[in-house]
Amino acid sequence: MKKRTSLITLAALALVLGAAFSQATGPGRAAAAAPAATTPLSDEAEAALLEALTGPKGEYAAYAVYTAVIERYGAVEPYVSIRDAEAAHIAALQRQLDLYGVDYHKTNPYLGKVEAPDDLVAFAQAGVDAEVANVAMYDRLLAAVADYPNLVQVFTNLQNASQTKHLPAFELAVQNGGTLTPEQLQQVMGPAAGQGGWAPGRGRRAGTGMGRGAGHGQGAAMAAHAGGCTHTPPAWAGQGARR
Question: Taking the complete model, does pTM exceed 0.85, yes or no?
Fold first, then answer.
């Protein structure tokens, strides 16, 4: 009888341990621990993401334009601060492309192919026109990524910064001889402008192959929420490399 009781006890213990193990490692628990699956991009969404980074109105092109201006005229505003913002925006888009496994130019194909204008006032006006076009571009691209909330968030933030930060900066620069003082810059772009980044805090440099003078930009976690600036290079900007 004692032997039989011991066997029953051991069997009951095995059932309890088995249930506990199943609860800890069962399908529900395993699913919670596993990385979330990424929904593959549609052709339209992939094209939109690539255009935002590498297109003629994209972040690479804008960064190259501001680099050309700075190399010719020095650390003039608002070009320095907006270029710093572009570095963060490039990093945000690159992370999304990496997340979805999309091939893209790891280096900026526009660098070195842009000539700075002879007149900064004319360039500032071109910047105004480009920001208006940029907002319209993101309206179109947002429709293509509507099924991807992370891309909608990034694109919306880039569009909002073009409309609420960069456009007013260029409008004021037109009225001020093509440049801005530090006080004017902070008036239109916020207190972080002109302090080595688009927003408080500094992180790693955005992307690779961005050329000298890349600026600090934001940290990786913040860049996905940064504002954006994607410009159509003015007529003097030359032609960017094809993908």
Answer: no
